[in-house]
Write a structure and sequence with these properties.
The protein is α+β, with helices and mostly antiparallel strands and 147 residues long. It is built from 4 helices and 4 strands. The chain has a single domain, classed as Ubiquitin Conjugating Enzyme, CATH 3.10.110.10. Strands 1-2-3-4 form a 4-stranded antiparallel sheet, covered by helices on one side. The chain starts with a helix and ends with a helix.
Length: 147
């Protein structure tokens, strides 16, 4: 199956059964390779009540090559760089293992799970302090993700 067929199948899956609190699809009708995604902040996290926009870009080599996923909405999270790029194994070095088993729906679910279960050992600006992380993440959600 070529990239276009796989992406069309992923789109069918997303339209039929979107993950709770998530949506994703092509930014423009004629371009299957660039998607917009929205994830509602998970309950009982500092992201609760926030709406986070992401860009998803598929290459012509998808699903052999991982999609590029980037947060557009500014977010404070130990596993998300200030550029919006993610530190997530299923779209990083482990992609070749996961790509045979997962659609973009599962990838989006994994991103939402990352919001709820951060790896605080991967410190980006909070010095490993859970309290600093929680406070700052909540402040940024209020400032950048509440619409």
């Amino acid at each position: 199956m070529d990239a276009t067929q796989v992406i069309r199948n992923d789109l069918r899956i997303m339209r039929k059964d979107p993950p709770p609190g998530c949506s994703a699809g092509p930014k423009t009708p004629g371009n299957l390779f660039q998607w917009a995604c929205t994830i509602n902040g998970p309950e009982n996290t500092p992201y609760e009540g926030g709406v986070f926009d992401l860009d998803i870009e598929f290459s012509k080599d998808y699903p052999k090559k991982a999609p590029q996923i980037k947060f557009v909405t500014k977010i404070f999270h130990p596993n998300i760089h200030s550029s919006g790029s993610l530190c997530l194994n299923i779209i990083g070095g482990d992609w070749s293992h996961f790509s045979q088993h997962y659609s973009i729906r599962e990838v989006i679910v994994s991103v939402k799970l990352l919001l709820a279960n951060p790896n605080l050992e991967s410190s980006h600006g909070h010095g490993g302090s859970k309290e600093v992380y929680l406070k700052t993440a909540k402040e940024w959600t209020e400032e950048y993700a509440k619409k």
